[in-house]
Amino acid sequence: MRVDDKLRVVDAGDVRGLVRKYLREYADCSGSVLYSGLDTLTAADFYFIGLNPGDSSGEDRLIDHTIHPANWSAYTCQCWQRGCNEDDCAHKSGGKVLERYATRHQRRVQQLARSLGQSPEQIFATNCIFVRSPSTRELMKDAESRKKAYELWNCCWPVHAKFLSEVKPKLVVCLGNGTEFTSFGLLHRKSNTPEILESGSTFRDGRYFKAQFNLGFDEPWIYGVPHPSWHQPPANFGDRSSPPFSSCQRS
Ligand SMILES: [Zn+2]
Predict the structure, then answer these.
(1) Is the distance from CB of 220 to CB of 211 less than 8 angstroms?
(2) Using an 8 Å Cβ cutoff, are 216 and 169 in contact?
(3) 86 alpha carbon to ligand 1 midpoint, in Å?
(4) How far is the CA of 155 from the centre of ligand 1 (A)?
(5) Which of 31, 42, 59, 133 is deepest in the core (most CB within 10 A)?
(6) Fold that domain 12-75+104-247 belongs to in CATH
(7) What pTM did the predictor assign?
(8) Distance from Cα 30 to the centre of ligand 1, integer Å
(9) Are 221 and 247 in contact, with CB atoms under 8 Å apart?
(10) What would the pLDDT profile of 198-213 be if each residue is shown by its tens digit?
């Protein structure tokens, strides 16, 4: 799949245009496209990707959900406390979620960013599937749901192709590294299933492969960490002396 270079993604209207074009009837579903500010949609070394937005009390339709211009990360600025209303949130100070109210998932993603020498607000972040669901289990609960989940992924993929061609990352970090329905597994299948290399002896140590998306630029490495909700980041995450981090230039 080649990306149309004439269509640049530069503002919130462009993101909504992509949602309208590719998500079709799903554009009215609750969800979110960017987990970072629009200012991260530019050439950079790293790209973070999860599976899909989780449960939230907010009703945010994809087509008109809030897109933050700059210096914003869902991992530091969005309250994930169950039942909390963003407009009336008491868990933040200065626009940032206080550390004690950040979820384990948020704290671990912050740690991943720091291990790469960045702040979460500096790294482009998104999800394979933009539509929200209470859990992955819910997405995969029966044959019908699974069919819809894969259909959603196929609708979202051209949007990622655009984002990837804007960011041209050296390393895509997948938040969850199972080989089935995780961001790592989905990108692996989009990439014609190249050989997966293990960083250590178990999935907890991380695993990676060289992408073959054929988007018309240098292919990134795809690195999967064990799911941040359940596991600590791998000990050698971001270590520039070990692959694939050794292939990533310092920003
Ligand atoms: Zn809150």
Answers:
(1) yes
(2) no
(3) 6
(4) 31
(5) 31
(6) Uracil-DNA Glycosylase, subunit E (3.40.470)
(7) 0.94
(8) 19
(9) yes
(10) 999 999 999 999 999 9
